[in-house]
Amino acid sequence: MHPTDSHRLHAHLIGRQGSRGLLNTPALVLDLEMLERNIAAMAAFARDSRIGLRPHSKTHKSPEIARRQIAAGARGNCCAKLGEAEAMVDAGIGGLLITSPVVSAPGIERLMALVARSPDLMVTADHPDNVAALARAAATAGVVLSVVVDIDPGMHRTGVASPEATVALAQQIAAQPSLRFAGVQFYCGRHQHIESYAERKTEITERTAYLKGIVEQLTAGGLKPAIVTGGGTGTHAIDAALGVFTELQVGSYVFMDHQYNICDLRGDGGLPFEQALQIDARVVSANTPGMATIDSGLKSMATEAGAPPILAGVPEGTSFRFAGDEHARITFPEGASGPGIDAVVTLVPPHCDPTVNLYDAYHVVKGHTLVEIWPIAGRGRSR
Amino acid sequence: MHPTDSHRLHAHLIGRQGSRGLLNTPALVLDLEMLERNIAAMAAFARDSRIGLRPHSKTHKSPEIARRQIAAGARGNCCAKLGEAEAMVDAGIGGLLITSPVVSAPGIERLMALVARSPDLMVTADHPDNVAALARAAATAGVVLSVVVDIDPGMHRTGVASPEATVALAQQIAAQPSLRFAGVQFYCGRHQHIESYAERKTEITERTAYLKGIVEQLTAGGLKPAIVTGGGTGTHAIDAALGVFTELQVGSYVFMDHQYNICDLRGDGGLPFEQALQIDARVVSANTPGMATIDSGLKSMATEAGAPPILAGVPEGTSFRFAGDEHARITFPEGASGPGIDAVVTLVPPHCDPTVNLYDAYHVVKGHTLVEIWPIAGRGRSR
Fold this sequence. Notes:
Order of helices and strands of chain A: HEHEHEHEHEHEHEHEHEHEEEEEEHEE
Structural class of chain A: alpha/beta
CATH superfamily of the largest domain in chain A: Alanine racemase
CATH topology of the largest domain in chain A: TIM Barrel
Shape of chain A: globular
Low-confidence stretches of chain A: none
Oligomer: homodimer
Helix content of chain A: 25-40%
CATH architecture of the largest domain in chain A: Alpha-Beta Barrel
Number of strands of chain A: 17
Largest sheet of chain A: 9 strands, mixed
């Protein structure tokens, strides 16, 4: 049995020239050469900046991509959820950090089983009750669990609320024989997508001063954090220059998406990364002049970041509008004639992470030829 | 090996009293008694109204639910896409109608293989080129394919554009020995969610007059459609009263969701169906007074229909805001204290169909006890 529906449908097309056009649609397509250039570009940036990388696998959920990132120098991968980490450990990926707290009894039980298989796995925590529960479970399981204190940068999603609370939690961890204080996490999520580099830099500089104070306080108290982890594709250049983080949790750079494509990532107006992730769709109905309907709707891409730009297959100036769960309408500019039924149209995902989460596999292409199919092993593993 | 990640995590909880509280979250939960009452209520309505049901499986993507609908009297199920139909045929479900055109060469090849296994399967078409391609493929495969002409009700998504085009396409189908003209489809998608019953009725009555004229024209030409299929949960009472449809494609009534819960479905202000589909989430961080963070974000529910109402686990008046891919923030009313970490919070999906598409299984409960786990066999089968 093939591991995914995509393998079942498309394995016979691998290596056949021009086979991209024969994919059943909607299909999640990944341009291998662009992906490899993106991975190499971020790896070179990190080497030049003398900073570590622990790329976030919540973007790609793929052991194949994690392996390539690690081969290029990354320390491992971050995982948003325990289920994603299980998928990575199953595939032999090490150096994992779970970036959200694991608080439930069944979750903590699974976490201990995972640490037994992958001893360098780390988890974040932000509450004394959770640390106490982790310590008890690790002692019972006979493992030593590495815990990273998550610090709230002011957006009130997760994290401890003050420098004092950070120090107290680090002390609580360090005092437990079944736990190891591994460092701190500081993730400015909402700052990643500020379009202007200058504005992003001002805000991140201010936030990072707060982090720096906490790191100094911890160090003075004999709890120097071995890792200071955080940052993302939107702030990587700023984070590296400020010199407080020891490693970056960059995720979206591997694929890029429309949200990041409109951000000035390096402050020079350039685009350091390429749009490797695409969706191929097909025209299924074209009975009304000036428009056509394609087979990709709310079930084929995340919708909270707006409509996807259209990369290929339509006249310049064509617009996109969702038309229900299964379809979208493309409208051609005045006077232009558009593609007829069965024509392929290529879209750019508005927001890559939750779009990837809708598909079972990447259709990896070189030019117009399907070269590999990679399962999205962490798809739906949000728990 | 268990068929889903949910089985792996939770099969041992089946039948254990109170086991709903032990589910790893986010979990898609289905209240079995509500589901059964919803199925029975729509079946009784159809019997009383002397109209057929072919419920739409794009909502549930589950052979278990299809089987219950058919046991209650339905003729089969509709499927939005070929991939969903394959999943249903794999599970032994018959009486299928694919409600979107299948236009690509690889899709048509799969369609013929499916008809060979499930001879009563029907597909919609809206273009002469597509009908010609279907006829050629069916002749080559040695099958007779039943084709339903899809008529555009004016929303320009799919369907032929005029009465004349309907008749011409029906004639083209009837003239092919490898095809059978099975009837017409007419789906007023955007009308389903008009909140006021009176407004919805006015619009649907007008649209249905157009459909009635086409049916009369076909009948006069010796092509009386055996089925006239369409309608949905939002218009079922109006459609049945108008007497033009022979069967209804109701989908969301099995679960209900927030979008439909605010619609007056029968014109009497009552709620004929219950909120059977729910999402259980957990508080993972609670360090800021007046708010908490739960483990359900953009990857746990469809977002295009707004925020989910909170059904249980929080003080009255608590609000919800998405906070990224993996999290949401719940904010308590002034002065109220909310749940702490590890507490379970139950949400109502804003829009059921694309939410179901994010999960591998239903956690079927009776009261607070997990009683079954049903795989979502059609999940992600959008092609």
